[in-house]
Amino acid sequence: MSEGSVYQRSDGRWVAKYKDIQGTWRYLYRKSKTEAKQALRQALRDRDEGISPNALTVGAFLESWLEDMQDTVSHRTWLNHECIVRLHLKPTIGANRLAKLSPKDLHNLYRAKLADGLSRGRVRKIHVTLNRALKDAVRFRYISRNPAAEVSPPKEYQREIHVLTPGQVRRLLTAACGDRLEAAYVLPATVGLRQGECLALRYEDIDFKQGTLKVRRTVWRNQVYPPKTPHSHRTIKLPTIALDALKRHREKSNGASDEGWLFPTKNGNPVDAHNFIRRPWKRMLRKAGLPETTRYHDLRHGAASLLLSQGVPIPAVSTLLGHRDSSITLRVYAHMIAGMDSVAAQAIDDLLGD
Fold this sequence. Notes:
DNA polymerase, domain 1
């Protein structure tokens, strides 16, 4: 049987052409020659295993989809999709025929997951993965329409942001003074670092003379990655309180290597985020007399709200936090900004009043 071929159309798209198990010519359209070759290899594997496009199961498709996308997304993104496929999709709808998958099947899946106790946010992530995979199934010509596009995932309620008051932050930093991880509490509270960004710092990222810090990487599940987004890769001017904490940290590290981690474990790796929250963070909350429900991320929110309340321009706060653009800052902290109308009115009176 024909091994197929790959060629480019006049409109620039690449086509993988092959005969299916019934001897019918099939055409798969891709944006690049590499993608077309990958699609052809997968189609020939399916054909040789006796799988026709109409008989392909959801589970088999998702396995090949994960394999094909490994080189097109970050490893962290791929792991998230793989986890959802393995834990939530293959055990439930994996045996369904892809061509017969209906919006009702997905609606029932989402309701079942909610009944099992999964959060609305987690079910929405299942929908995101499935929707992305089925979009590719349409693009690969396995199915003619995307059933996930016709299903609304559970509405996720906006989580209320808990912001520590300046007094609570001072209590926490007072309790942390002298602690071996003091700087890990000061940095999110003063410059809004994310947890992964903070724990991934090396001494080479700190310019003690210029008083700056570079965010170059993040830690997640014991793996080091580039920052969350390109905009998260940033240089931050440190306030004196943060710079002093870093200097004390360097003095206590007994001349740590300039290439070493700022917060290493005994075996020289970055501190694990889960262990940090479970032990040092909970211990510090108790020492400061703060509720144990307080999240580490609340320090970042507190830094942002404090800056906004002091009239720091939104674009400057957005840049400090590493947001992609100011619209994200506006959306996350809209309730804080909405309460600043009296500040704006007072500013006009101060400038233009008698």
